[in-house]
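hey m, so remember when u said the tokens were messed up on ur end? i reran from scratch. heres the input so u can diff it against urs
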Amino acid sequence: MLKNIKEVKIEVYIPEEDVVKLREALNEVNAGKIGNYDNCIAVTKVKGHFRPLEEASPYSGKVGEVYEGDEAKIEIRCKMEYVEDAIKVIREIHPYEEPVYNIIPILNHFFE
């Protein structure tokens, strides 16, 4: 089935102060390009919750305590041939020990 998928939406949860840096880096690897436009992203403010376990080295919060903080959710479209590069960029730039991202198939072309 994946061979029929042309594009995905990548969702990334990241501190708000890192949004521009990540957007620029993703643009450099051709993520966020739609037709004749680039740098196409949506950003939503969200509340993140997590508890770092004993082996964690948290960016925010303390080991053993539930943390709640403001984050940004970035949504960006990406052609399949650029997804691996986009994930590499996310892992390089994201300040969290365990970056949270989701890769969601876009099925629009099946209905055009």
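this time it looks ok to me. The mean pLDDT is 95. if urs says something different then somethings off w ur setup not the seq
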